[in-house]
Amino acid sequence: MTKVALITGVTGQDGAYLAEFLLGKGYEVHGVKRRASLFNTERIDHLYQDPHVDHRRFILHYGDLTDSTNLIRIVQQVRPDEIYNLAAQSHVQVSFETPEYTADADGLGTLRLLEAIRILGLTDKTRFYQASTSELFGKVLETPQRETTPFYPRSPYAVAKLYAYWITVNYREAYGMYACNGILFNHESKFRGETFVTRKITRGLARIKAGMQDRLHLGNLDARRDWGHARDYIEMQWLMLQQPTPDDYVIATGIQHTVREFVETAAEFLDIRLEWRGEGVGEKGYEVGTGRCLVEIDPRYFRPAEVETLLGDPSKAREKLGWTPSISYRQLVEEMVREDMKAAERDALCRREGYAIPDRSEE
Ligand code: NDP
Ligand code: GDR
């Protein structure tokens, strides 16, 4: 029997990788996408199947986590074996600007999906994956962070995800549902949104190298993160739903770098050597040899409450799921730089040929 999966957030970074992975495993994959005024399926266009042909295995539905009528209808229609709830307003800084919406989509949205499973009598059939996050640890109370480390969320995003975490545990305990939390640490790729710090750095430095941009503005260079590759992490999401019993797992590499180090590694792959001068908000990164200022600290990118350091302990996932990440930090940065350099060179060529390339260097 072909297994059927439903992915919310299928147009996002993880959704795109997971859809491709599950299709490769023979699944019929359904995805929920939001209505937008422009096409928003760039990350999954390579998987697209014409809705007019029979026997499609990749099917998209319009939907939104803030609308339970629509979620119930989709779950009823698809009757999935597995639901991966990846949809979220996932930007921590933006959650300070849209806290109520973030709580609605990221917190209550999870409840709406769990209730849809229950209302439709699918509690014994449908397995549920919740995209939980290392942001739950926020102001860390133990290092490295593991499944038993107490939570201390530091943003409206993290507080909303805390609700989603516990409602998932609650439905597992109350109704015997197969429901899991993957507590994933930061994971990146060429599909990463342009306003997350890693992509902002690889894209910004590549555009500087291609002459498309002068300078990169960043916030807290001292923040420390445990960065892995999204392709490794989505395999874990699937593995969690294939076990005899449901459980919650930390997924991380166990290695930490600062934002400053990420800038330096990306610069190294572009053959740029940086020298830092100053400290904190005044700090700037100059290119050795030319003396050009390439990186500048801008207070607008500092958060009202910062998560200074995150480092995960993935021992449980390694022991119980047999998982170890296969892509190293340096391979990750190299791949992101390479892809962004290709895009920057293409834009530079178009601009030289007289095409108007918008100057959307950063947000
Ligand atoms: P992205 O921001 O790339 O993707 C988020 C997805 O959710 C997009 O498809 C987006 O649609 C969709 N979405 C947003 N709001 C709604 C809504 N109200 N209704 C329906 N869909 C919505 O995130 P990632 O792929 O990086 O992350 C996937 C999940 O994992 C998220 O829940 C995130 O919070 C969580 N997470 C991510 C980590 C990471 O490092 N990447 C680490 C830990 C957890 P659209 O394309 O239209 O914007
Ligand atoms: P994060 O990722 O908040 O960890 O959430 P992000 O890349 O946005 O920030 C990481 C760290 O870098 C610092 N920083 C900057 N961040 C951004 N975005 N832009 C900047 O210019 C900048 N300068 C410094 C931040 O202050 C922060 O400390 C991501 C998201 O994917 C969440 O959805 C997910 O849950 C967590 O990772 C795990």
Automatic annotation (TrEMBL):
Gene: gmd
Catalyzed reactions: GDP-alpha-D-mannose = GDP-4-dehydro-alpha-D-rhamnose + H2O
UniProt entry tagged with the keyword Protein transport: no
Cofactor: NADP(+)
Keywords: Lyase, NADP
Enzyme Commission number(s) of this protein: 4.2.1.47
Positions of the NAD(P)-binding domain: 6-336
Top enzyme class: lyase
Reported function: Catalyzes the conversion of GDP-D-mannose to GDP-4-dehydro-6-deoxy-D-mannose.
Record-linked InterPro entries: GDP_Man_deHydtase, NAD(P)-bd_dom, NAD(P)-bd_dom_sf
UniProt-recorded name of the protein: GDP-mannose 4,6-dehydratase
Lineage summary: Bacteria, Pseudomonadati, Pseudomonadota, Gammaproteobacteria, Methylococcales
CDD domains reported for this sequence: GDP_MD_SDR_e
Protein family according to the UniProt entry: Belongs to the NAD(P)-dependent epimerase/dehydratase family. GDP-mannose 4,6-dehydratase subfamily.
NCBIfam families: gmd
Source organism per UniProt: Methylomagnum ishizawai
First and last residue of the signal peptide: none
GO biological process, one term: 'de novo' GDP-L-fucose biosynthetic process
GO MF annotations in UniProt: GDP-mannose 4,6-dehydratase activity; NADP+ binding
